[in-house]
Design brief:
Number of domains: 1
Distance between the termini: 49 Å
Strand order of the largest sheet: 1-2-3-4-5-6-7-8
């Protein structure tokens, strides 16, 4: 009898979760950003992400980062993961963001290789029009002795579908 009760309760909870799941995926957007730079330095980066849109203008999600950079004989590969929060200010087109990212970098030149890891906590603002947002963000944890980035400021270029 106890087993039957547990089985019925489990079945009802699965039915509830499956109904909520279909509503859940309607509020998920996929996309991310990219980085391209060519000239004396080559930089190629991609940052896929997914966010869940709440009804009050907030979105919360996660993302991945990969960046390849080359300056002469010096190359850098950066891998990372992040937690993303977005807030869309109603009727203005401004999107505020907060993002915690943990990155791991491997830097190599012709004779040596260096590995490092560093956290970043970005706060940013972007102009948002439909599925596209662009702006700037600032890393409040920036440490020039640990980070592979030249500045705590970085551009925001995001697409979500």
């Amino acid at each position: 009898m106890k087993f039957f009760f547990i089985l019925v309760a489990f079945s009802l909870s699965l039915t509830t979760v499956s109904q909520q799941k279909s509503d859940f995926w309607k509020n998920v957007r996929y996309g991310g950003g990219f980085t391209l730079g060519f000239g004396t330095q080559t930089t190629i980066g991609i940052t896929p992400s997914a966010v869940y849109d709440f009804n009050n203008g907030f979105s919360l999600g996660t993302g991945l980062t990969y960046i390849y950079s080359e300056i002469g004989d010096f190359t850098t590969n950066v891998y990372g993961g992040s937690i993303i929060s977005l807030y869309q200010i109603p009727n203005i087109g401004i999107q505020l963001s907060g993002e915690f990212e943990q990155s791991f970098a491997k830097q190599t030149n012709t004779t040596q290789s260096f590995n490092t890891s560093f956290p970043a906590l970005y706060f940013g603002a972007a102009y948002n029009k439909g599925r596209f947002a662009f702006g700037v963000r600032y890393d409040v944890l920036y440490d020039e002795n640990k980070s592979v980035y030249a500045s705590p400021f970085s551009p925001i270029v995001r697409f979500y579908f």
